[in-house]
Amino acid sequence: MDTKMDKDGRAVALTTTGNASKISTRSTRKKKTTLITPKRCIEFIQSKHSSKNFENGTAELFKETYIESPTFFNYFKPANKDKNFSKNVWLYDATRVQIPDVDYYHASYVEGLRPNQYILAQAPMNTSQQKEFVKMLQHVKAEAVVVVDAADDCGTFLFNKKEGDKVGLKVSSDKSTDDWSLATISASGLKDVKCGRINKWSGEKFGETELVEAHEKIRKYIGWGQKNPIVVVCKDGATKSGIWALIDTEADRFRDKTRVKLTDTLKTIRNYRSNCFDSMENFQFACSTMIEWCKKNNKK
């Protein structure tokens, strides 16, 4: 039964005789469905795998879906306590880099414009971790290494020749300025890997303009279009590495699509690498650097 409001604001029934008769047609209108049909659902799942097989598509869809809260079991194992630089930077189990014959190394895969485009890694803190770092480069077939931390203890087991000799890690300098250095690193079983380092990003003030310029120089040196991961290194493996991954992803997107998706990339990096952009200072510096990058490249 349809109703209407009278002058006192009460609901009264509509009459059903004469010209005053009003029959609602709302209930007979066909609504547009928002549900996917079974056929479309099957086609969607099949499209997830190149074989168009339903079972394979289901497996791929399962991998894409987070069905549980993130876990950190390997990070909190007592045996791994001394292998972590910071107690405030954890490591997701789901995205951690697993290396044959190495129980644990503090590094995570991070998606850029393609899966596993980056590895955000903690700098080796001793000769044992130095060996494991080299094994990681060999295992993932890294095409470039970018060290975005100028602290002395970050580069000791990467660029110190005396320590490097212990594992056969060779560093050949190509070009160096006060702001950045370019080199190649190699070891037994590891082909020459191009490496860039920012020389001033330490405790002292490091501005957005300097970071944008350093990114441009290092990217020009290592090139674009890598198929294997780029390993980005800082002391804790997240704070500065996350900022580099953000800028580099958006620079890559701008080259391809001439647009920027800052919020999407921030979320993606945090989903893959724990504790990136945790502090307000770190977040603001990342965003202001990205704005500086856009200003510079919009003029080209």
TrEMBL record:
Domain Tyrosine specific protein phosphatases: 209-284
Pfam families: Y_phosphatase (PF00102)
Ranges where the Tyrosine-protein phosphatase domain occurs: 78-293
GO molecular function annotations of the record: protein tyrosine phosphatase activity
UniProt name for this protein: Tyrosine-protein phosphatase domain-containing protein
Taxonomic placement: Eukaryota, Metazoa, Ecdysozoa, Nematoda, Chromadorea
